[in-house]
Specification:
By secondary structure, this protein is mainly alpha-helical. It is globular, with a radius of gyration of 21 Å. The chain has 13 helices and 4 strands. The chain has a two-stranded antiparallel ribbon with strand order 1-2. Strands 3-4 form a two-stranded parallel sheet. It starts with 8 loop residues before the first strand and ends with a helix. The chain has one domain.
Length: 363
């Protein structure tokens, strides 16, 4: 790794944004490309063992939770079953589904853990998620007018986004979104807002709507019909346990994702700023447009290692278990180049995120 670089920084006195010169961004690109190459070459049996261990743990927790909820007339069984199922759904959504769909484990050649075959326990069909998340969000991270994940088309998270009176209510609907997050994302991934402008055809929209209807029907039938019926006398508490587990998973996913993208120190960008963007400049935007959450190994696991959101945005298709070892190296590079590296405990990032939501309710 290079130990020095020519760094010229400028601070815009009106925005407080730190910018870097071409020499710095080129050096940044080379250093991060080098890290990427090293990790790609080092992938092997320990990484495969890690993801298979998580998969076995997730399936065991789900089986245990489902079994406990079949006798959930007994309160201890309901609590145990609901807790196990909530953790299983969190692991499936965050560490398995999200990361597998990014292609992080495609290098293993295992058809059971591959981005082209995985269908997750989430309302959004995998193909729709890969289009809006993997392509649009990760390509145009925090670019106003290009990254639809910047507020998910309903929240105003940047002064560059136009203000409308409905934004006065955004603290309310941001909070209400949390327990039903998977359904909000499913509707968002339909890209209905792109139809009136002609960016998406009516035919394509109707096709996606049919796909969502099929996926949603399967999810609903599994959790709220099939397993409650199998529980017999425990049908109602089983249904409530499934509902609670889904809500807990949704609130957690909402918390991690919002804390990784919307704390107050995370930058947004205009379309003019990315015109002719180099690879080094793309890396720089990913660093400035993301935030990490500090915590222990359990937090990192349950967040799908999206607590290392900066590392994920810089290297979205590298195995998630590698982010913890990449993080100190990336932070050292940022420190050496005088670049911001937004990180903090969960409580601080959560408060900062809500500060941003509140701040942009007003014009």
């Amino acid at each position: 790794m290079a130990t020095s670089a020519v760094t010229e920084q400028q601070v815009d006195t009106t925005t407080g944004v730190t910018t870097t010169d071409e020499t710095t961004t080129d050096e940044l690109g080379r250093e991060l490309d080098r890290i990427r190459s090293e990790v790609v070459e080092a992938r092997g049996a320990p990484d495969a063992r890690y993801i298979h261990t998580v998969l076995v743990a997730q399936r065991s927790l789900e089986a245990g939770g489902r079994l406990a909820l079949t006798v959930s007339l007994l309160p201890p069984a309901w609590l145990a079953g609901t807790a196990m199922l909530a953790v299983a759904k969190t692991l499936e959504n965050m560490e398995l589904g999200h990361n597998i769909l990014h292609g992080q484990w495609d290098w293993m050649g295992d058809p059971a853990i591959h981005s082209t075959t995985w269908e997750w326990d989430f309302a959004t069909p995998a193909d729709a998620w890969k289009r809006t998340h993997n392509h649009l969000h990760h390509t145009y991270t925090n670019v106003v007018g290009r990254d639809r994940d910047l507020g998910y088309t309903i929240l105003r998270m940047s002064p560059d986004q136009p203000w409308h009176p409905v934004h006065l209510l955004q603290p309310l609907y941001a909070a209400l979104l949390a327990p039903v997050f998977e359904w909000g994302i499913a509707l968002y991934d339909l890209e209905a807002d792109a139809v009136p402008s002609g960016r998406k055809s009516v035919r394509s929209f109707l096709g996606d709507l049919a796909g969502l209807a099929r996926k949603a029907a399967g999810q609903f039938a599994k959790d709220y019909v099939l397993f409650p019926l199998l529980a017999g006398p425990s049908a109602v508490p089983c249904l409530l346990g499934n509902l609670t587990a889904n809500a807990l998973r949704n609130v957690w996913a909402h918390t991690i994702i919002f804390c990784g993208h919307f704390p107050g120190d995370v930058r947004t960008f205009t379309e003019d700023e990315i015109e002719g963007e180099t690879r080094g400049e793309w890396y720089l935007r990913q660093i400035q447009g993301s935030a990490n959450i500090e915590g222990g190994r359990l937090l990192h696991l349950l967040s799908g290692n999206l607590s290392h959101q900066i590392e994920h945005h810089v290297f979205p298709d590298l195995p998630s278990n590698r982010y913890a070892e990449i993080a100190p190296r990336l932070r050292e590079i940022c420190d050496r180049h005088g670049l911001p590296y937004v990180t903090g405990p969960l409580a601080r990032q959560y408060a900062s995120m809500w500060g941003r939501v509140l701040r942009h309710t007003l014009p």
